[in-house]
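Database export, one record per block. Field names are fixed; values are copied verbatim from the stored entry.
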Amino acid sequence: MDVQTSAVADPTVEPPLKGMARRIAVLVVLLAFFMDILDGTIVNVAIPSIQNGIGADYAAIQWIVAGYALTFALFLIPGGRLGDIYGYKTMFLIGMAGFTFASAVCGFSTTGHGLVAARLFQGATAAIMVPQIMSMIQILYVDPRERQHISAYYGAIAGLASVLGPILGALLVASSLFGLGWRMIFLVNVPVGIFALVAAWFALPNARSPHPLKLDLTGTVLALLAMSLLTFPLIQGREQGWPLWGFVMIAASFPAFLLFAWSQRRRDRIDGSPLVVPGLFRYRSFVMGILIAGSFFGVVGGFFLTQTLYMQLGLGFSVLEAGLTGIPFSLGVAVAAGASGPLLVPRFGRLVLTVGCFVLAAAIAGLGVTADWLGHDVTPVDMIPTLIIGGIGMGLIVSPVFNFVLVDVPVRHAGSASGVVSAVGQVGTAMGIALTGVVFFGRLAITAQDFVSAFVWSTGFGAAAMVIVGFLTFFLPRYARPKEGVFGAH
């Protein structure tokens, strides 16, 4: 996840860090990044245990996963602006402290609603912390060649955390350290967070942007309102039997989005500091790119949640079996992602994304066919070939998609564009969980808790959505080669 919510223009750091001091500083911020990615992937495998432990209903389960992504997305760009204004170290410490506190509250929650509230707060504090990481890397490594070297570690850490999340989550839940069970997936953040806070206090330099953009509070509130009006009834409405207020809220979300768009144009004219730069939407590659990225992460987010519930509650897999079953998928992602960016995309262009979408769609559909064919007799071995193929499909997309989104974006809008892309990916995850949940949990209600049937239906929905995303890739530029003066051009 490349988060660069605002440009860092010649920040003042006195004295500049070098040698061991600089290496320690970058290790601290990369540790924080690892924690954030890990926390986004570690929860899924523990969902059934959480449900049994505190009696959370299905709506709460969706909020526990989607709520984190939603608040992270909505506060990501404001979090970057706060760092520009008040200092990157200051906001990193505030974000890390809040994230650590929220993790403790999550770990000691005794009700579904309490855990949901803590997860929402955890996502918001992560959004304050994470933008400062890329800003710090820009400050610590002024030389672009050095920064590129560190960015490679940044990407590798994201991949490693994504792979380790389900496995570590399964191990923590299964081992039930100190008898805490699922609570350990949150409480493990507390000692790590305290260590990162102390290390950051001493290791990180003080810096801020000399020309920070203003904080767009109105835009932030309107974005939060619009997304809440759309997401809340999709998740909560099904639990309430689709009451009238749900449809009213969904209808009201559209004028709320229009009001947000109007506020961004007005803010851009007044002081040039909107949350989202309206000019970005003049570039077809950007518009289609964020639509593709949001839809892609939505399908993947919904699939991972329903697959976990299917394996543990439908097939009776232990939490450790469910966690280890995801390894073939992760290996497929790692191999394909490593090859797609440097080798395949320069030669085949957007065709790599197209093929990736169709391969992932075929894999999701294949898992549905396997479930329908074998019923409750599916074993982890039965899933391995399809999961490897699905991982390869995802790896072909996840690595190069952001390059296509940003291919036409001018350098002056690079910060805003990167922040929007990252936020859209998180919003897509939240929306995907909500929409897939409508299909999955709706089918559960019809079939008297037949998780196999519900999974078959949800995979059909996910595969169809991914096929549509594949066709949308034809609207992207043929190659991700930025023109001179455009973000990413050399």
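Remark 1: Residues 414-446 form the longest helix (33 residues).
Remark 2: The chain has 18 helices and no strands.
End of record.
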